[in-house]
Amino acid sequence: MNPIPFLRPQLPSLEAIGAYYRLAEEARFYSNGGPCERLLRERLSDHLGGVGCVPVHNATSGITIAVRAVTDAAGTGDRRFVVMPSYTFVATAGAVRMLGYEPLFIDVEPAAWQMDGEALTDVLTQRGTEVAAVLGTHTFGLPPAAKVQQGWQEICAEHGVPLVIDAAAGFGAVDDTGTLTGRDQAPHVFSFHATKTFGIGEGGLVTTLDADLLERIDALHSFGFVQGRLATYAGVNAKMDELHAASALAVLDGFDEILRRRREIAAYYREHLEPHGFAFQTGAAGGTWQAGYLVAPDAATRAAVLSGAAAASVGVTAYYDRPVHRHPAYADAPVHGGMTVTDDLAARALALPMANDLSEQERQRVVEVVLDAARGR
Ligand SMILES: Cc1ncc(COP(=O)(O)O)c(C=O)c1O
């Protein structure tokens, strides 16, 4: 039987990209807000219901810029810490280290795997005056319930600490009220990396409804220029070039269908694995499904699934099996409160194969391999 890879990214055809790229060729304008980038801003903004959009060259830079923008605006920039969950990808922490901040890690909660509101309240109550910003994450791109995120916002506002959301994998995700992620005052950062459901190679997007933050983010991603070539802010170059903007426009044309297919595959995984003790995130139906994220009932079952899948050449892997505070680069960063849930999830986490074109036979085989391995342990 053919191996099933963990991910099988699929970008739009050259033809589909070229149809947009022609606009750049005709204008002889290849970056710096050319016709494709301008059209992309407009279409992404429409897609998200009218929100300020700044396309960027990747989400890591997007996070760096968004954190700089909110701390500048709030006047908290000279503080030491950025609070964030440890149950995330290392880029969340790396982006703020590059700004000179220390990550201050807190736990997540067990059912939705999202930043724990009680831990957030506790850390801001005890150390709020040392905190420059909170960098909440949408774990695996899935937003928490609307009330949970509102709670994060209220806690941050109470302590005068700005909030940024790393929603990297979450372009297209919806919360429990059916609202698309990203339409918010707090900047949300999305990744358009090749492996994401909205994939273009390297790229990303920062969104916000706040006009002042939008101006800052827009300027910071392009040398700090606000009008013409006058550097009003100390910015960097994180612009999205025309070829990537053309790719993103082509992805957007087929994105509803991509999401539909991935959600169908994920629903199949849930239907067949939940009855056997495997658990999915609360609210999973609204996810974008970069991969099939779930947790095994226990660590021994996880180990059996990983080795059974490897033997069957089925690309099952373990995300996040190492939370950020357990990576050597961040081992010296402070942790506030316990990491019980994070460590428990990390010991049981699994990620199943996903692709726009994962066939019915392939998804059946993935489920069979997982269940055989779990039964046989
Ligand atoms: C949670 C999270 N944050 C940030 C990033 C970084 O995104 P990019 O690769 O676009 O810089 C990723 C990428 O996988 C991610 O998963």
Task: Describe it.
- It is globular and about 65 Å long.
- The mean pLDDT is 97.
- The chain has 377 residues and is α/β, with parallel strands linked by helices.
- Helix 6 links the parallel strand 4 and strand 5.
- It folds into two domains: 14-253, Aspartate Aminotransferase, domain 2; 256-376, Aspartate Aminotransferase, domain 1.
- Helix 10 (299-311) crosses helix 12.
- The chain has a seven-stranded mixed β-sheet, with helices on both faces. Strands 8-9 form a two-stranded antiparallel sheet.
- Helix content is 41%, strand content 11%.
Quick one: CATH class of the largest domain? Alpha Beta
Strand order of the largest sheet: 1-7-6-5-4-2-3
Question: If classified by CATH, what would the architecture of the largest domain be?
Answer: 3-Layer(aba) Sandwich
Q: Output the radius of gyration.
A: 21 Å
Order of helices and strands: HHEHEHEHEHEEEHHHEHHEH
Number of helices: 12
Largest sheet: 7 strands, mixed
Strand content: 5-15%
Number of strands: 9
Bound molecules: pyridoxal-5'-phosphate
Global geometry: globular
CATH level 3 topology of the largest domain: Aspartate Aminotransferase, domain 2
| N/C terminus separation | 23 Å
Low-confidence stretches: none
Class derived from helix and strand content: alpha/beta
